[in-house]
Amino acid sequence: MTPRGRSVSGRRARRGAEADRPPWPFLVLAGLAVLFFALPFLGLLWRVPWGDAWELLTAPSSIDALRLSMVCSLSATAISIVLGVPLAWVLARVGFPGRSFVRALCVLSMVLPPVVGGVALFAAFGRRGMVGGPLYDWFGIRFTFSTLGVVMAETFVSMPFLVLSVEAGLRGLDRRPEDAARTLGASRWYAFRRVTLPAIRPALVAGAVLAWARALGEFGATITFAGNLPGTTQTMPLAVYLALESDTGQAIVLSLVLIVVSFGVLVALRDRWLGGDPGAVNG
Amino acid sequence: MANQTPLPDAPTAPHRARHRAALVLVALLATLGLLAGCGSDSKSSSTSATTGLTPTVSGTVNVFAAASLKEAFTEAAAAFEKANPGTKVVLDFGSSSSLAQSINEKAPADVFASADQANMQKVVDAGGISGSPQVFATNSLEIIVAPGNPKEITGVADLTKSGLIYVTAAPEVPIGKYAAQVFEKAKVTAPTPSSLEADVKGVVTKVTSGEADAGIVYATDVKAAGAKAEGVVIPTDINVVATYPLGVTTEAANPEGAAAWAAFITGSEGQAILATYGFGAP
After folding, report:
1. Looking at the structure, do residues B189 and B121 belong to the same domain, yes or no?
2. Is residue B134 part of a domain?
3. 3-state percent breakdown (helix, strand, coil) of chain B, nearest 5
């Protein structure tokens, strides 16, 4: 309730508020987009058999799948960080011929259909594969049908998310503090660890979270390359898929767990690590 | 981030107005396009259904079929379309259980061909089949092994050999259930599988790619794998013969087309095609 006085300052304030308001087509389209994302989840919530939910969730097969999913997705994220950060650094800082070719190669698995990724992993690391063949024949090492295979499949599809994010972070970085540290006698490693790494932390965390979320949801490459065995290679998405065949209730409850976990992490990390959302100061 | 790149000039007021007008236009066009898309779609399908000038079947027939029917139904569809010009058979393959579930969730199927009676019964119980389903084919089981049978598997008992990598399908999938029945009938303890695949094609792929040594699949799958695999016959007394029922759905958008497809499959031409792919007669 503002007085109807037409003071200059009042008009200015109104105009300011108007400038913040998006044009109505934007609101309508954005609203449609939100509905498009929200409705499937609401639909799922609506179908949850709440009465049996706890029993279905604590069934041994659910617990096994949940545990395996956590172990494998976190391992895949850890491997992605250990290998992906150096890769991103090389791609961002070292100019070498064929760099764009190497970059495209390393993020290709992100856009491939996951099943194709699984087939490619077969060809390389399978029991008759290029590398997997000799490993199996000489040392008896087998990746398929093993938890290690799941981690490989998940790493294969999720690492690109981390690489792209960290590379973008490194490219957008002001290099002067790092140069200054070097001038002041810091070793390369020290400067990287104490100056560069803290500066790219938001990009690293964002990339790691995306990679983890992708690994958690991995299905196609996993079932193609690692197979599906409860307790060994049956992660949550595989358990959901097979539960759909027999017990829709269990499939829905497991899906809900995946959604809650992923959603929780995405919400929590956004505010905590990514500097928050400037528009959400009060919300 | 810290380097000071000059910001481009902020758009002036007339600019902004023009931008907004353009946006409104785009939004309107998009909405209209969406509406028009829906409208024309429903109109075209209704006209195609009502312009029944000729008594012959026409239009699209959506067939939901068990994964094991893939090759046979693909050939049968081509023959059907040739015999009935103006028809189009759209085939959707998957495990019978997931197809049954899709149909019960009102997926647009005109015909459902299941690899077992249980999943057909699920649809029948939900009132999804008009009339009663009819058996149109049978399929027996075989052991699928690598070409040349390097592990020298002669029967079901050999599948329990140590060091042998055996894969099967999950117990929810018909082939997984049938394989378990074979071991039961043979009085052999079922081997520990390395993987419980989501459908029968998963078992075939694992063996043809060399990742697994053996699995139990339909005789038709061994035939379909061609030179990439070999089959070991399972004696009739311990074999499980799968019966394939077919039904026209109650929600069929093209019931005439669906009935024509059912008649074609159970007729002599359809049966001949099925036989070339290893199916038995009902």
Report:
1. no
2. yes
3. 45, 20, 30
Residue with tokens 């001949």: B272
Structural domain includes residue B23: no
Q: Residue A71 is encoded by which pair of tokens?
A: 């172990």
CB contact under 8 A, A229 and B193: yes
Would you call B126 an interface residue with chain A, using a CB distance cutoff of 8 Å?
Answer: no
Q: Is B243 helix (H, G, I), strand (E, B) or coil?
A: strand
Enumerate the residues of chain B whose CB falls inside 8 A of the CB of residue A227: 167, 194-197, 206, 211
Domain ranges for chain A = 50-276
pLDDT score of A262: 85
- Judged by a CB distance cut-off of 8 A, whether residue A62 touches chain B is no
Q: Where are the beta strands (DSSP E) in chain B?
A: 59-66, 87-94, 111-113, 129-139, 141-145, 166-169, 195-197, 214-218, 230-233, 242-249
A27 and chain B in contact, CB less than 8 A: no
Q: Quote the strand ranges of B164-281, DSSP E.
A: 166-169, 195-197, 214-218, 230-233, 242-249
pLDDT for A11:
52
In this structure, the answer to whether residues B264 and B181 fall within a common structural domain is: no
Fold of A50-276: MetI-like fold (1.10.3720)
> Closest chain A residue to B105 measured between Cα atoms?
A248
Phi-psi region of A185 (alpha: psi -120 to 50; beta: other; left: phi over 0): left
Q: Is B119 on the interface with A (CB under 8 A)?
A: no
The 10 Å Cβ neighbour count of residue B72 is 23
Instruction: Tell whether B194 is covered by a domain.
Output: yes
Tell whether the model's pLDDT for residue B39 goes beyond 90: no
pLDDT at B43: 35
Q: What's the rounded Cα separation, in Å, for the pair A236 and B121?
A: 29
Highest mean pLDDT among B15-29, B47-61, B252-266: B252-266
Domain that holds residue B176: 141-238
The reply to whether B84 and B217 lie within a common domain is no
Whether B53 is in a domain gets the answer: no
Alpha-carbon distance B83 to B243, whole Å? 27
Q: Same domain for B125 and B248? A: yes
What is the predicted pLDDT for the residue at A24?
87
Question: In this structure, what token pair is assigned to residue A187?
Answer: 């070793």
Query: CATH number, domain at B223?
Result: 3.40.190.10
Q: Are residue B197 and residue B145 in the same domain, yes or no?
A: yes
Instruction: Determine contact: A147 vs chain B, CB below 8 A.
Output: no
Q: Is B198 on the interface with A (CB under 8 A)?
A: yes
pLDDT the model gives residue B173: 84
Q: State the amino acid at position B67 in one-letter form.
A: A
Q: Inform me whether the C-beta atom of residue B281 falls under 8 Å from chain A C-beta atoms.
A: no
pLDDT band at B169; cut points 50, 70, 90: very high
Say if residue B280's pLDDT is above 90.
no
Contacts of B173 in chain A (CB under 8 A): 245
Per-residue pLDDT at B88? 94
Burial class (CB in 10 A: 0-12, 13-18, 19+), A168: middle
Percent of chain B whose pLDDT exceeds 70: 80
B interface test, pick of A125, A146, A228, A247 with most B CB neighbours within 10 Å:
A228
Count how many domains chain B has. Answer: 2
CA distance A102 to chain B (A): 26
Which residues of chain A carry a pLDDT beneath 70? 1-19, 270-283
